[in-house]
Design goal:
This protein has about 450 residues and is mainly α. The chain is built from 18 helices and no strands.
């Protein structure tokens, strides 16, 4: 089957899977917000941020190595990658438990501001419980990455959606009898358990076993050492706002911000799934076989991503407060205006796919430079914006923090011979058209 047909088929499966996943995520969130109080979502947001931070500090690109490497189908390479993955899971789990203990004793010494998320008594034990999910994730079969390598994503999508449904069901069942934050924690653990188990029994192929091939280790390390740096700073770029706000604002305000962030990034997650699971393997294949076609393939993928992001950004900027009012009860109304501001950040979604192109070309140093700039932005802008303008300033800073990074990505795309500025911005008028129509309709309807 041609690359074009495989990309189209994989895209349809990925889009369908992502939409289904986001709808399940939204439905579960709507149910849980009626069972639990806003402050618990704020605490859980910080738990997720800290856990993702530790994961980022240990990321060496095992999954990307399997997709990008010419040895990605060999048993020795896959089993060595699986062994490294398991070791990483245990190391990360130990770090998470250690951080949980540190937060507990810091609270005992009253080192965190009273009323902040980090001072919440439930934070340390719930954070420690996430280490179970991290360990389970490490045992996941490497055949999942092999599916992406060949753009055969249908089995993975079915597996992921089924695991999510089981996790959501367990979370709602727990909350029905015990309306505590543990309902949110148990859902994540059950999801990882089901997904890991199914990855070994549903996907065909030779079972993974422990192995340590020296050449495979050096190849994975050589590919991942710069990606390690990139992942650390990308984490601060994507999660730095919550990390800083967890120190500065109350759990309830953090809960409102989390709801707004959930809705604002729904399309971003869909686009990231499409780029990472479909376009990145396609970039790798074209880059290895016919590099001259790479610009055309890249900007065709960008047309799809950009059109969707600009339409969604315009709609949320226009109607975000109304959407929150329809979906949530009055306790969460504060998230409405936050969503309208955060939606501006969706304008950067397409530009972020440049790192996947550079990764396909093996330009991990460039990715590291992009990530450093992306990570530095929120850490500098958000505390400064909060000091001068409060939470409103933080939202605008979070929305615009990626745009300096966009300029550097243009420079790197020019270096690899791909950049076309006209194609970069040709879909931008879509955002302003949707925004103007949306605001005009609100004015006509008197909303």
């Amino acid at each position: 089957m041609s690359l074009r047909k495989r990309v189209v088929r994989a895209s349809l499966w990925t889009i369908g899977g992502q939409i289904t996943s986001q709808l399940l995520r939204l439905v579960s969130n709507l149910i849980m917000t009626r069972l639990l109080f806003p402050d618990l979502f704020g605490v859980m947001a910080v738990v997720t941020v800290v856990m993702n931070g530790v994961l980022s500090l240990s990321e060496i690109g095992v999954a990307q190595s399997i997709i990008q490497s010419k040895r990605g189908r060999e048993a020795d390479f896959l089993n060595t990658a699986w062994t490294i993955q398991i070791l990483r899971g245990w190391i990360v789990a130990v770090f998470i438990v250690s951080i949980s203990a540190a937060i507990y004793y810091a609270n005992e010494l009253r080192l965190f501001p009273n009323g902040s998320v980090f001072a919440h008594p439930e934070l340390p034990p719930v954070l420690a419980s996430t280490s179970i999910g991290v360990i389970l994730n490490g045992f996941r079969s490497t055949h999942l990455q092999a599916l992406f390598r060949t753009l055969a994503t249908s089995k993975f999508i079915v597996l992921e959606v089924f695991s999510q449904i089981v996790g959501i069901a367990s979370m709602i069942a727990w909350a029905t009898f015990d309306r505590s934050i543990w309902a949110l924690a148990i859902g994540g653990i059950v999801t990882e358990l089901v997904k890991t188990a199914l990855s070994h029994f549903v996907i065909t192929g030779e079972r993974n076993h422990f192995a340590w091939d020296r050449d495979s280790v050096f190849e994975i390390y050589g590919f991942g050492k710069w990606l390690f740096i990139a992942t650390i700073f990308s984490y601060f770029g994507q999660q730095g706002d919550k990390l800083v706000l967890g120190w500065l604002i109350s759990p309830e305000s953090m809960g409102f911000y989390t709801i707004a962030f959930l809705l604002a990034t729904a399309y971003q997650l869909l686009a990231a799934g499409l780029v990472g699971r479909v376009f990145f393997p396609a970039f790798c294949e074209v880059g290895n076989q016919d590099p001259h076609r790479l610009r055309g393939v890249y900007y065709r993928s960008r047309t799809v991503i950009d059109f969707g992001s600009f339409v969604v950004a315009g709609l949320l900027c226009s109607y975000g407060d109304l959407l929150v009012g329809v979906l949530y009860d009055q306790r969460y109304a504060e998230a409405g205006w936050m969503l309208q501001v955060l939606a501006v950040g969706l304008l950067s979604v397409g530009f972020r796919s440049a790192d996947q192109l550079l990764l396909a070309l093996g330009r991990t140093k460039m990715i590291s430079a992009l990530a450093v700039l992306q990570g530095a932005g929120p850490l500098i802008l958000i505390p400064t914006a909060f000091y001068f303008f409060g939470l409103n300033g933080v939202l605008w800073a979070a929305s615009f923090s990626f745009f300096p990074n966009m300029l550097l990505s243009f420079f790197f795309l020019h270096r690899v011979g791909v950049l076309n500025l006209v194609l970069e911005f040709r879909m931008l008028p879509v955002f302003f058209i949707v925004l103007l129509v949306g605001m005009a309709s609100r004015s006509l309807l008197g909303v």
